[in-house]
Amino acid sequence: MSETKQLAEAAGGSDPAVGLRAVRALRDLADRLEELQVGNARGRGWSWHEIAVCLGVTRQAVHKKYARKLSGIGED
How far apart are CA 45 and CA 42, in angstroms? Predict the structure, then answer.
């Protein structure tokens, strides 16, 4: 079974300690994947607005979160 699937099952389990740790691990994974994909999008010339629409946030929010981390990638 994949680690992600195990985490998802643990997050839905009845033991709060196990579930909360799994939720945290899934959140960390989602954050890393989001940063990776924002970087991919910027590298392909996507605007902050296009990325924000996909993430369901404002352009300002995504820019504030990632502009400094990704400086030099797909500047506009």
Answer: 5
